[in-house]
Amino acid sequence: MLGLSSLKFPPVVKTEINLVLVLVTVLGFWTRLRNLSYPRAVVFDEVYYGQFVSLYMKRVFFVDESGPPLGHMILAFGAYLGGFDGNFPWNRIGAEYPSSMSVWGLRLLPAVCGALCVPLAYLLQLELGSSHYAALGASLLILMENSLIVQSRFMLLESVLIFFQLLSFFSYWRFYNASNSCSRYLWLIVAASSCAGAVGVKYVGVFTYLLLLGIASVHTWQLIGQRAVSHVMFVECGCRVVCLVVLPVLLYVFCFYVHLTVLRHSGPHDQLMSSAFQASLEGGLSRITRGQPLEVAYGSQVTLRSSASQTIPCWLHSHKANYPIRYEDGRGSSHQQQVTCYPFKDVNNWWIIKDPGRQELVVNTPPRPVRHGDVIQLLHGMTSRFLNSHDVAAPMSPHAQEVSGYIDFNVSMVMQNLWRVDISNREAESEVWKTIVSDVRLVHVNTSAALKLSGGTLPEWGFGQLEVVADRVSRAHHSSLVWNVEEHRYGTSHEQKEREVELHSPTHIDVHPNISFLSKFIELQRKMLTVKQEESEHKYSSCPLEWISMTTNIVYWLHHSTNAQIHLIGNLVSWGMANLSLAAYQLLALWYLLRRRRAIRDITEASWCQFQRVGVVCVGGWLVNFLPFFLMENTLFLYHYLPAYTFLLQLLPAVLEHAHTHLLSGKSQHRAGCVSAFAGLCSVYLCYKSFSPLTYGSPELSANQLQALRWQPSWDILYRRP
Amino acid sequence: LMTRGHASPAVADSNVYLSEAILDICRGLAVFFLILFLCMHVLNSRCVYGNVLCEEPSMNTFKLCAQPPNTILVLLVLGLSFATRFYKLAEPPHICWDETHFGKMGSYYINRTFFFDVHPPLGKILIGLAGYMTGYDGTFPFVKPGDKYGHHNYWGMRGFCAALGSSLPVFAYFIVLELSHSNSAALIAAALLIFDTGSITISQYILLDPILMFFIMGAVLSMVKFNQQKPFCASWWLWLLLTGVNLSGAIGVKFVGLFVILLVGLNTAGDLWALLGDLQLSLVDVAKHLLARVTGLILLPLLLYVTVFAVHFAVLNKSGPGDGFFSSAFQSRLIGNNLHNASMPKYLAYGSTITVKNLRIAGGYLHSHWHLYPEGVGAKQQQVTAYLHKDYNNLTTRNLHSHLQEAPMTRKHFQVTGYGINGSGDSNDLWRLEVCGGRRGDPVKVLRSKVRLLHVATGCVLYSSGKTLPKGWEQVEVTCSPYLKETPNSQWNIEDHINPKLPNISLSVLKPHFLEILLESHIVMIRGNSGLKPKDSEINSRPWHWPINYQGLRFSGVNETEYRVYLLGNPVTWWLNLACLGLYAVMVAVASIHCWVLMRGGGQLVLGWLLHYAPFYTMGRILYYHHYFPAMLFSSMLTGLTLDTLLHSADLFLSPPRADWLLRLGQVALLFSVLYSFYIFHPLSYGMRGPLAHEPGSAMAGLKWMDSWEF
């Protein structure tokens, strides 16, 4: 809204600097960045994130199911700035970093984020309508919170997450409180981007985003109610929707785009992904598949990979061993050759596609492609047995049919080896079967059962390989029924001996499967959400209810010869006070609600509004960052509570201020309130000071001093016997 | 031909016998429901104050005078729902699907043998009772689905479930009538349920679901009725107490009953909130309201729920298949268990011979045998395992030993072996005994003390991981865990105790009292429930499958030759329900902040649907299609209410005669489509034979509208 008339000459810039804010910011940086490269050793989860940072440096593709890639990218960016080349083994906690490595660079960005949380707390508190005193209190509580300091000073992600969460709430309220100008939309954009940031760092960020969306939609609803229908209102609502819904989604997808662009080499987790995905990575599968013929033809030699959504890939396999005549449970088998699914590349994974009407096993010129709906036979390359199925119960899944390599024992068991090709992702009815891209179901012609990976494992007689059965095609699109051709070449040899030599030789022929970014993104995202983390117990794991009382600590690092050590232990004083403030807030809220219902107004409408606002942000923020953990099944640690706890810390000064203005009356009471608040702050400082050796890892304490710090008997503090 | 000739008289005989018995039950139930219905009618005519609505035309756009229930309609609904549920009830004469569990559990009650199930006992008690009353003697073994019942009286239990299932449409009729004050809306809802193949199938077998749904709908009906009564008059109290009774019934059958408790709780909270805001009422009156609800909806259900468990424990007093799930102390209550009336020294002493049991569910006994760990698995010393069965021949005179070698399955733990002989060994044989929740020096009590065995040298704790060893005979791995958390896996108790130097006491003094066994059985049930994890390899039903009727459940039969019953909702009904959920949202958004029926009545139904559906998304346990049925009841009632409102609002844009015409047309079309779809899909419930639907010549040809249906 700058008119020409408002332009003056000479241009003058007037600034006001809040010295208190500057001071807490400086203190924040001092507490978080001081002596950052000590200890020069791998601390706790650095060992986990470090490997991904290394892979980023080497641009090697990986899948980490614990969270979206933005957090890893931020860590990797810091490492990049510090000149880290990715060459460090990351094998155990406590391993020393070589002197050439810039530890400072690795830890810088999380520490900066942690430091910025201090002024953000101040600003957020102001936006929520509290006074500067309360804002100062909030920032000091964050400043002197040992657990937040520890979590910020290492290559970990929580501080980044907390930073984004605080930033999003602060900027949203700045937007909401700002006068009606266009520039305030800048704040909305900041809010939306930091929401995307929070979600991009950890999935838990989603709940904060949802809370913010909830608040924003209530505000928008009020906006719609306030005014008569006008164009301005529509534009405003539209802007809000675009900023808060579309923008975060785009940013989230964008961070995957960067992730996939940066990581272009094949790596350790390739096998989790589909063949098409792997083929798009440099090295690995693409080296083998580059130059394969695209269209599968009669006479093609192929390996068939199961698309079942399990962590280990496997290929259709057979070998010179038969099903045992009787299983352990007494059921009989056909005693024909075993057909399994084998999780390793092997020459026995090769199958030849044969036209049932012809004898030859080579590809004609021109090749006759196999199409959707064609009936084929599959001949095992090394043993020349036909893939066969019949009405015999499968070894581990008796409800399904056995699949075997057919051997004629002359016991009136006829050969049933015809399979119909059913391409489930076809676009046309006569689609050609394509290498890698076609998802194929092989439907047994005689029984209309489909070849399926049952999920069972064969016992010793089957060498622990995976069971393959034929099952009724009932569940239309289940992935365990789907197979695709991974390696492929046109067969040229007529004789079995030649063919064996041919099968042993590596494939090398020509096509490049194209896979769009979007399908790569969707596949990777699905993989990350569906891959199950191994449930592992950990010495320092804890359950959500224990976090409230902080009954478990975590030892992050212990010096290899002295008593110097770093723990994740919060500031017990502020921990307790924050819990008290939560209880006080809830009681007050209940009291006010009941009284208001009986038409008794204890406080003015404006302060009731402010009271509600504080509750929605602080209690709401605490709830959405805390409750979801009760439903999670993976191993949980105290540090998962820190985002929730940060919100809870914001509640304490607001509740104190509310009590001061509304509940205390008279000068003496006010004075007592101030004094006790100051005393509380002092005790928080003392607690911070006494635990700071465990926070910074120095100075080293004696065994007695360490024992004295064991304020809760359940804490595990280590000391060497003198 | 000969065999067929022989068999037919017998079959005919039993058929005649069956149909007579069923007719008897029908008559009895019809009389019962008629009396119930008349009672409701009488109560309705007294102190009703729903008519107030008619005096507030501003509240609603439509004419909303309370319509009394139409007697003919009610009888029609009652008759049709009984007819559809009882038709071919005895078919197929073999075990279908989960009958194998619940029928078996019913038999356990008749035989009074103790068993374990993840659901609370009320449903199975009722099934057992129904079987007992109709002459079933509890001797049928219920081994696996498909087993023929033969001469056993299974129809009594099925008839009981079917009777409860038949009352659902009637309840739906009354609920919708109360919420919408429209007979046509109520009739639509009832018709949807009567002619839904899924509801019919699930009501016809020995299952917990019809019982659960009966209580759920009963609770909702009583709640809705309760809301219409004048405070503190007799019928108000009656409906309040009935709500409480039904709530305890619902949670007593399955823990899913918690959702209807939530629904009633939210409704009551809203009610109290409104009362609090009514400034004409004094605080004393509000407190009275509060206390009445606390009594009727919390204390009474709690009391009944505990009573059900008391009955459960009193009836099941013989040892049975459930013993192993419970602690040793619990087992000492059961006749036939070797701990029953046993006597042994009370406190542990040096030199005692003992058996040690793990506190995990179905935890094994600490065990060792003359086999060494194989090469490559830690040290080649004698195996120590947990064995699920008692085995008294296990005195191998080795010492329990652990050392810093990794355990066979759980790699992070240490190996536990048998080492040394006759008490001589090394320092790694030393264990410290710790009583959980006790102090140093406390004596260890048999059965009751939970102890942990801490390895002195490494500081780890004796642990049973629950993983089965590869070459064992039901042997479970025992390790020494370095993680000292108190979990049941690392807690043990002393079960048998022999020490000739000490005086024996009778174990009956150590028997746990009722509250302890109540608590223990709940812990075991909850752990059992969360232990029902889906296996990775299996194809699971997901909650989003359910409202779109994506896939049903095979109740009986797979092949062409077998008698097949397939649990699948009538697709027309279910898709109509789904569409009406959307339609409801649209109607609320567009027009009806002023429409009382949609906002309040519809709101309650939507809330009920959400509460019975949404929580499944957060459940980690294995899920099945039939879990959706309670939610589907709410959805169908909402459909009745929404469609009726929609049809009646035709007069907003059409002149009276045409609007009326449209209304009739809509109703007829709806009725016709529901009836016709029931006609073509009825073999799903009443049994199919012959070729499957995708093959030519099948009776169901062309009806496989979704590839995922399996009939």
Secondary structure layout plus pairing:
The complex is a heterodimer of chains A (722) and B (711).
Chain A: H1 19-33, H2 46-58, H3 69-81, H4 103-127, H5 132-143, H6 146-152, H7 158-177, H8 184-201, H9 205-226, H10 231-262, H11 275-279, H12 285-289, E1 300-306, E2 315-322, E3 337-342, E4 350-354, E5 375-380, E6 387-393, E7 401-405, E8 419-423, E9 440-444, E10 449-457, E11 466-472, E12 483-490, H13 496-504, H14 517-530, H15 544-549, E13 554-558, E14 565-568, H16 572-597, H17 605-626, H18 628-631, H19 642-663, H20 667-696, H21 703-708
Antiparallel strand pairs in A: 1-4, 1-12, 2-3, 3-7, 3-11, 4-5, 5-8, 6-7, 7-11, 8-9, 10-11, 13-14
Helix pairs in contact in A: 1-4, 1-5, 2-3, 3-4, 4-5, 4-6, 4-7, 5-19, 6-20, 7-8, 7-9, 7-19, 8-9, 8-10, 9-10, 9-17, 16-19, 17-19
Chain B: H1 2-45, H2 71-86, H3 99-111, H4 122-133, H5 155-180, H6 183-194, H7 197-203, H8 209-228, H9 234-253, H10 258-277, H11 283-315, H12 328-331, E1 343-344, E2 353-358, E3 365-372, E4 382-387, E5 399-406, E6 414-419, E7 431-435, E8 451-455, E9 461-468, E10 475-481, E11 492-498, E12 505-506, H13 514-530, E13 553-556, E14 565-567, H14 571-590, H15 596-613, H16 629-648, H17 656-681, H18 683-686
Helix pairs in contact in B: 1-5, 2-5, 2-6, 3-4, 4-5, 5-6, 5-7, 5-8, 5-15, 5-16, 6-16, 8-9, 9-11, 10-11, 10-15, 14-15, 14-16, 15-16
